[in-house]
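Input.
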Amino acid sequence: MRRLLIFVFVGALTASDKSPLVTAIDSIALTVSDLDRSVEFYSKVLSFEKVSEREIAGDEAEHLVGVFGLRMRSAKMRLGDEFIELDEFLAPGGRSAPPDARSNDRWFQHIAVITSDMDRAYRWLRENKVRHASPGPQRLPDWNKNAGGIQAFYFRDPDGHPVEVLAFPRDKGAEKWHRESGQLFLGIDHTAIVISDTDASLRFYRDVLGLRVAGTSENYGPEQERLNNVFGARLRITSLRAASGPGIEFLEYLAPRDGRPYPADEKPSDLIHWQTRFVGINAAEAADDFRKVRSAFISSGVVGKSVIVRDPDGHAVEIAEKQ
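Output.
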């Protein structure tokens, strides 16, 4: 049995002293207003394949999701080896995303879709009239040892959710992103979240969940400002990984520090809602650990074999036992 997690926070226990609470990121879920429209967009524009669709309602779903009287349509979509879930709440309706949302607001989350050819990907996205969030693809400068040569572009899906298209130079990224496949869009490298304090987020994702730090960088300059469309952007970036699946990337804005906090009254039916679903060893053990570190619960506790909580900045995290 693993030691009490309270010791993590006073320095007596490190992540290496215990087995990880999670083994993989299974999928990244986002709330949409029209499931059919979103399925068509992700299928046509980004080459995702719909692998399943279901309708969800009833007492167990209400206790897991934390929304009373819900009825949901959910589609699971695959790109390469990775998955997203698109969730439409038929009831109750949720709130739209703020029209003035910025990339440094702390409810920001995106998926990073890898492309084999940024120039061709950008032409394709323009042909499909996506809404720009960046003015165009940006190449990060070579002086940045850990990020130099990466090309990236932000745009928005039909509900305004940010999506990143990313191209790695030969010396960066996982080996699988450099295999010849003939495909324009290859898979999801990571999901990125804006956070307020890297150390606090590490205590949650590294010390509680058991993810490992895979890389760090500090990004700034005109290319980064244009990518995020935030003037003066200077970011502390930390990448974490589980044993398998896409990673999770912290975006801490060292400047400007005026990003708005996650709304305290946000619900999973609201269109700013994203949820990262981890595969875990034991949901009851996870719930105990979350209580010890005083995480806010979205679910009423362990429901079935899953539990959903919020991270230190309010991002939703689900731990589900592998079926």
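Residues 39 and 198 are 34 Å apart (CA to CA).
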